[in-house]
Amino acid sequence: MKNGELRVQQLLYGHDSPLFEAMDFHCQRGEIWAVLGRNGLGKSTLLDTLTGFLKPLGGSIEQQGGVGIVAQHSHLPFPYLVSDVVLMGRAQHVRLFSQPGRKDKQAVIDALEQLNIAHLAACTFSSLSGGQQQLVMIARALVTASQTLLLDEPCAALDLANQQVVLQLISDLAHRQQRGIIFTTHDPVHALQVATHTLLLLPEGKWLAGATDSIVTEENMQQAYGLALRKFRVENYATPFIAPLFMINQVP
Amino acid sequence: MLTLRHIALVCASAFFASSAHADRMITDQLGRQVTIPDHVNKVVVLQHQTLNLLVQLDAQKDIAGVMTSWKKQLGPEFARFMPSITSLPTPGDLTEVNIESLLAIHPQVVFVANYAPEAMIQQIQNAGIPVVAVSLRKDADGQQDKMNPTMGDEEQAYNEGLKQGIRLIADVVERKAQGEELIKYTFDARAKFNAPVANIPDAKKVRVYMANPNLMTYGSGKYTGLMMKHAGAQNVAAASVKGARQVSLEQVLQWDPQVIFVQDRYPEVVSEIENDPNWQGIDAVKNHRVWLMPEYAKAWGYPMPEALAIGELWMAKKLYPDAYKNVDMDVQAQDYYQRFYRVNWQTNAKQ
Amino acid sequence: MQSSKAFITRQLALVIAVLALGVGSLSLGHYPLPLSEVFHQLTHYSQSSGIAGQVIWSVRLPRILMALLAGGALGLCGATLQGVFHNPLVDPHIIGVTSGSAFGGTLAILLGLDPLLMMGSTFFFGLSALILVYAVAALQGRENALVLILSGIILSGFFAALVSLIQYQADTEEVLPNIVFWLLGSFATANWHKVWMLAIPVSIAAAILFQLRWRINLLSLSDKDARAQGVSVVTLRRCVLFCCALLVAAQVAVSGSIAWVGLVIPHLARLLVGVDHRRLLPTAFLLGGGFMIIVDDIARTLMQAEIPIGIITALVGAPLFTVLLIHSSRRRRR
Questions:
Q1: Do C220 and A78 touch (CB under 8 A)?
Q2: Exposed end of chain C (fewer CB within 10 Å): N or C?
Q3: What is this structure's pTM?
Q4: Following CA atoms C125, C129, C132, C138 in sequence, which dihedral angle do they give, to the nearest 10 degrees?
Q5: Which of C304, C307, C311 to mutate to probe the B interface, most B CBs <10 Å?
Q6: Rounded distance, CA C266 to CA C72, Å?
Q7: Could you report the per-residue pLDDT of C215-263, keeping only the tens digit for each?
Q8: Between chains, do C87 and A77 touch, taking CB under 8 Å as contact?
Q9: At what angle do helices C61-84 and C233-255 cross, to 10 degrees?
Q10: What span, in angstroms and rounded, lies between the C-alpha atoms of A132 and B56?
Q11: For residue B321, what is the enclosing H or E element?
């Protein structure tokens, strides 16, 4: 197994009983996996299992190079500074009774610069906008130096501009730094735009995994979300789109 | 001629001269061996019972410091016996001491209660000041500093304890003669005045309840019960309560005392009881026998000589007036007060 | 906000301030000693320097050291626990150790034990309380912050009830005043033995917590978040709580229960150096020590007799806390 790979074999996961049939997928270096599915099916639970927070009920998870996670919400009880928050990501690199050293502080600066938020280093985390906070959390995951990154609904609370920033970042991390990225989203457009592969969670314990274009189809989406979607292409645009056809009953 | 006697005298005086600044050893009532200076004329008293005794031994001019709560414990009227008390420093109390304030007084001896914390006694000793603990109780070996000792013979313990305590205090401040006089007067008076009620059978004894504020009372193991016994009465709380405790109103209703006494230092309790509807059903309240005791009738947990000498008499006369028809309480009280407090006895109008 | 250099200079200034406070407090007290005498005694130590030397070396110095260590222990413990339980309103009493220790001490007074045994009893029951907290948490099947807090509340209540029971049983004239005074806290009977009995556990626990100070930042995250960063939350928290129990039990054993310090001092420290626990923990220790020295100075000089420390910390601590809360909410609104 190479650095940055995450392989899942015959995985059964859930809190008390398996939420899905035995799952298999393999996230390799440089790949971006989008996890799609309705709310409450178990996307976040999957990420919890992949990080080791939850024990799998069956099957195996193999990884090399560490798995970092960017959670959906992060509540801090105290008004930490951005640099303090990002520094926390170095926990696995600092010995138990030691304090963070120059290397750790440098890693923080590097990550902040990579995300173009170095100017926010001395601000309080709670004073930032939602988008900026998300970037700080990503920076924290970056300093862990994990080769695989999991992101839980990274675009959920962001406006379109910030979604652009985050999606671009995901692409850079995978293609430029050769990391494996797995992110959950409930917008299939994100998958089409940036993900190389998709894991689609369907009702009644079924799932599909494979190259995004083959998974994100009108049929599959209908099965997954229970409403019709239209997949189409736009002139001069690299990737296809998919849009929902909401059925709104107008009361006469 | 008297050569031998002369030589003996010379030797003796030489011996005493050389030991003029030596110390002596005494044993306090916690069984501790304490070394104190030969001549003691500067003491600090951190116990109100000892303070009372020192005044009665005519040693108040030797007192250089008292406990902070003397007013609360002895009543503000105590200043009548010792006017200088209001200007004395108060470096500590029954259970704590400010060691620097104490050192600033430079006392030769500190009197403490037997239940003063061990740490406090050690601290004062370590500062080089001898500590004498007074309990006014003579327990069997090994029970000396227990709070509610299981005394086989309470009577014996308190009688002997009071004598031992008075002698100890008198010895320390070199008032031995006054000490013996106090003891003799007290126990003679008690023997004389207890006689008329000494043989009342238990069933005929008046049932008495001692009311302190907040439903506190004294059970067995305290001098209070003994005082009542000597006055021909029975402490209703003695059978089921041990030591000084809070009881419930239900218990008091169950005991249904015939008489309720209130100590002089808590005058408000009398009106509280008389006006409280919950107490109206009690025999004593129904028959208006809720009485405030005079100052000298100290029905405390600890025995005080005035309580033995005239307090018990007062209580007995109150409960059995026929047996004491020709005894004038005021005359008796005046005699005691003149002898030992060196002031006139003032009748307490609230009686 | 503050650079490292600025922080170090501030910290040094704080250390010097506390030391100066301690030395200055040597000249305070009811025994009249002019300043010149104080300096003379400090510079010429000899076994037989009379009462002046005794007051300085056997009365004031151990007492000031004890106040410093006790206040520092409480400040450090409070700051640590507020981090561990993700809540700035946490007081060291929350882990139940104070109530357990209070019970141990009260029981010792009731039984008439000598001072050494009493300290042992206090210490023992204090640590037992923490073990019981974990036992109760185990019974609930989980070991997260909320469960531990609830267990702490339960144990505190239980031991407090036992203390009340003992107070009820105690002779109201002779034992009860002893218990009440001890429960309010006091440094009055400070001596060198007690200083050592406090210094040893405090040094060990404080050294461990000092080295772990950055990890407290991580522990202040939610359990899930901390785990995600690779921290073994359960083990680390057990170690930290044990150190806090050592601090509190030792402090109660030598000086009775003292409230408010552990709650207020961390807030004051946060105002000075921010919320990063790397800076907060040492500052909380120093501020707590300095504060306690001041409070003890008041306790032993304001009146001729001793005022229990707990009364002063409450009278000073509650208004001070209110002011701090108002100040920080104003800051947040800006």
A1: yes
A2: C
A3: 0.87
A4: -150
A5: C304
A6: 11
A7: 999 999 998 899 989 899 999 999 999 999 999 999 999 999 999 999 9
A8: yes
A9: 150
A10: 85
A11: none
